[in-house]
Amino acid sequence: MSSTTTLPAGPLEIGGLALDVPVVLAPMAGITNTAFRRLCREFGAGLYVSEMITSRALVERTLESMRLITHHESETPRSIQLYGVDPKTVSEAVTMLVAEDRADHIDLNFGCPVPKVTRKGGGAALPWKNGLFRDIVEGAVQAAGDVPLTIKMRKGIDADHLTYLEAGRIAEGAGVAAVALHARTASEFYSGQADWSAITKLKETVTTVPVLGNGDIWSADDALRMVAETGCDGVVVGRGCLGRPWLFGDLAAAFRGDSQSFRPSLGQVAQTFRRHAELLTDFFDSEERGCRDIRKHVAWYFKGYPVGGDLRARLATVESLAQLDDLLGTLDWSMPYPGEGAEGPRGRAGTPKKPALPDGWLDSQELVGHDRVTLVDAELDTSGG
Predict the structure, then answer these.
(1) Is there a contact between 57 and 379 (Cβ–Cβ < 8 Å)?
(2) For the chain, which residues score pLDDT lower than 50?
């Protein structure tokens, strides 16, 4: 641990919510379901947010959205992220969560860069329409009442259309409990290096509520360095924990002043992978679906470890827990942590590209007629990415 790093003093306060350590699991579509959140929680501490849930689907009580907002009894506090483009629908979704006591924290997504979301004016594209952004956030805060409501956003659409400072001021004025920034634009997707200086600027702009930083946190040292360099109040961790739920243990230790880190043997990785598959089976109430879902995690878990291509391919087509046990049993569980090969970036970075936007979206920061027509179709999916 660097001697120049200043640790945050005490727990992070988000509204009336006190976190033991200033660490948040970033919502990731198809990843941060109950199974993965429980697994991360078993290793560390912090706030573990659900995958993104569409407000309209929640208000309509679709089976999938109702399943996604269901927390295991061990999950405290319960955190749900909502995505929406219509102030009324978002407010109705927040009202529902609060009235039915389904969440202890609610986050609004204004950072999704996925084309199917931005081309309809949602996600990272929405704060450009600052009046619409204000209406959504103000309505959601009012509907949330005593339940802390936060926002997560990106720097903007591209380098020529930055929105984060104005959006931060609007959100702070609306009464949000915290603001999180992924320090990239939508056009950058996950490519290149996150611009931590933007987190510094946001922290200088938003002064009455916590500012959380997100982007390129691959280790506990990265998290401490972000706090030291930017002055942010906490960190949001996304792709860095893919296949590494124990990162939350490292983060908890680091923020408490302990330099320990988990260096799992191949056997410990195999056990965690098996535990993840078991939790997914419980989550889906289906062994077949649980095993199908764990397949996408194979490359992340075994990154850097001496696991042959044939075995990786067989793990990536596993159909039952018994078959999984047989495959994991062929590994040399005594193999030690491989070091640098198992660390660093993971997940798809993509390449910079022109964001997909509604026709004429950038012509004005005010909503015009054709914008409203486009936004009607912006909440058709139950999850955005």
Answers:
(1) yes
(2) 1-5, 8-10, 382-385
Helix axes 247-255, 220-230, angle to 10 degrees: 40
| Tens digits of residue pLDDT in 31-70 | 999 999 999 999 999 999 999 999 999 999 999 999 999 9
pLDDT the model gives residue 370: 66
pLDDT at position 9 is 38
- Enumerate the domain spans of the chain: 12-261, 266-337
Residue-level pLDDT at 204: 98
Q: 193 near 160, Cβ under 8 Å?
A: no
Length of the chain equals 385
Residues marked active site are found at: 112
Which tokens go with 36? Answer: 């993965």
The pTM (predicted TM-score) of the whole model is 0.93
Is the C-alpha dihedral spanning 214, 216, 222, 227 positive or negative? negative
Do residues 188 and 175 lie in contact, with contact meaning Cβ atoms separated by under 8 Å? Answer: no
The secondary structure of residue 184, as a DSSP letter, is S
Picking from 340, 327, 315, 342, the residue whose alpha carbon sits closest to that of residue 244 is 342
Closest to 27 measured CA to CA, from 17, 35, 18, 37: 37
**Spatial separation of the C-alpha atoms in residues 199 and 214, rounded to whole Å:** 8
CATH of 12-261, one of 3.90.1150.10, 3.40.50.620, 3.30.2350.10, 3.20.20.70: 3.20.20.70
